[in-house]
Amino acid sequence: MMTADEKQTFKTAYAAEALLNKIPEYKRRLAAQKPVIHHITNFVTMYQCARVTAFLGAAPIMAFAADETIQVVSKSNALVVNTGTLNDEVIRSIPKALSCANARNIPVVLDPVGARLSDYRFNFIRSLLENFHFDVIRCNGAELLNLHGETTPGKGIDGATLSPEIPQAAAEVAKTWGCVTACTGPVDYISDGVTTLALSRGVPQLPKLVGTGCMVNSIIASYLSVADNTLEAAALGILTMCAAGEAAAVRLTDASQLCSFETFLMDQIAML
């Protein structure tokens, strides 16, 4: 007889395989509709985000100027907001973009990067949550716990994601803000406040690359633009990165070939 833990592992593995089978259909929708995915995102990872969006079949755009953001968002099919490299212009642009997206029911992904790095950053993120709707909050464990009300600084923009509090925090943050939370880490937790998925996929090389989280934001936003279900789109976004990472790692002759791994990763995202 299986233990409760073994039953959960089985259900998780089955759910992942069932979801992975849906990736080709999502990519067919993207190829047919060619949605525009607008990013107000981290300057460090813009190129990676643009590439992964294009490789999926969507059209990336990165416009930061406050004076044009409403026009750009109004022509878009999804919006990514990332707080990784805030400055005064970005802080002017983001609320305008969100007002437009919310008014037009354009799906939005928030990545509250380094939420507790500074009061400046945390207070801005908190004001966004209190005044605008987000369809998906994609974060790491430290960021999730910070949004949940705990002070968890992590290291730089990253944070430990093995806390036993994370599944509950994911569900409660989703309920509080009326969204789906997608917390990535050694185990990925995706919750809409009622259903919480736990996925254990990926390879050790993924967290060593700068920008994989930002790319997941882009994948989720691309899928949201053609999805029927937000929870499914968020889970599929994470699984796409994990499955591509697994396939890329197989192609390495040495596990330390991170530059080669990144190239293979992009290839596999396009090929899934």
What kind of sheet is the major sheet?
A: 8 strands, mixed
Percent range of helical residues: 40-55%
Number of contiguous helices: 11
Number of strands: 8
First-last Cα distance: 36 Å
Series of secondary-structure elements, N-terminal to C-terminal:
HHEHEHEHEHEHHEEEHHH
Mean pLDDT across all residues, rounded?
91
Large-scale geometry: globular
Radius of gyration: 17 Å
Helices and strands: which structural class?
alpha/beta
Beta-strand content estimate: 5-15%
Question: Strand arrangement, largest sheet?
Answer: 2-1-3-4-5-6-7-8
Low-confidence stretches: 156-160
Report on the architecture of this protein.
- With 272 residues, the protein is an alpha/beta fold.
- It is built from 11 helices and 8 strands.
- The chain has helices at 4-20, 23-33, 46-56, 69-74, 88-103, 119-131, 141-148, 166-177, 212-224, 230-250, 258-271, and strands at 36-40, 59-62, 78-82, 108-111, 136-139, 180-183, 188-191, 196-199.
- Strands 2-1-3-4-5-6-7-8 form an 8-stranded mixed sheet, sandwiched between helices.
- Helix 7 crosses helix 8 (166-177) and helix 9 (212-224) packs across helix 10.
